[in-house]
Sequence to fold (294 residues):
Amino acid sequence: MGQQEKVSTSLAGAVSEGISASLAAVDAELDRRYPGDPGTRQPVHTVYVPGNLFDAGTVRSWGDQALAALDEHAPDASSFAAVLGLSDALAEDVHARVRAKLEREPIEDLRVDFEDGYAGADEDQDAARAARLISEAYRNGTAAPYMGIRMKCMESAVRDRGIRTTDVFLTGLLENGGLPDGLVLTLPKVTYPEQVSAFVRLLEEFEKAHGLDAGRLGFEIQIETSQSILATDGTAAVARMIGAAEGRATGLHYGTFDYSACLGVSAAYQASDHPAADHAKAIMQVAAAGTGVR
Fold:
């Protein structure tokens, strides 16, 4: 070992203590706003099924259709390798894993849709039925790991309907055995942080009505309007939306087609790799980084 250097200091310990004390509020704010990733499972895809079409066999039906497509276009490892450009050695393992996944768990995250995809005649009945079927699926082991609904947004024209559907669905879950651990709610077409705050109030009132733990109900914010990315004052509204969720936001979903249409991108170019989509998703990623919001 070389010669040890003499280490000298000039400042009293009180200086460091004083600086730490002055930053105590900032330390607490960092811990509150940026807790980091929760470390729980994150699904790789979300499937939307219209509320009037969802039934007890939906998850298995999608898996069977996917298996049929695999059998038609890539029935073995060699054809699978040719389709995806994989080496034969790698394709052998991947093909087996894909088939096993489709047999065991074809959908990881399912949203019963009562917004754009919904075309039913009786939304109350369909929401109550969705609650019953999802509860039964969790009891009998046929559920996707994550399941829930996308209600209508908080804009004035459909707000009351969205609130009622949320109430019918959540009440139905409680009447059929309780809220499943994999429950997910998705709030679409958010334009102002105040709409997120309003949805938080709705969930708070539901929790109080049923004696649930405060914060039991979380939700995703769907980003599909230009106002959610850039507010009128030039700030990133999505960052304020995460704050407005008061710790209940679990994820951000990017709505490719509505967002693209909002910017005047024609239908032929409305894709997730369009530059407009790249910009929106980059803002979303920066806003959510470190917050625990996926």
Notes: Strands lie at 47-50, 109-113, 146-150, 183-187, 219-223, 249-254.
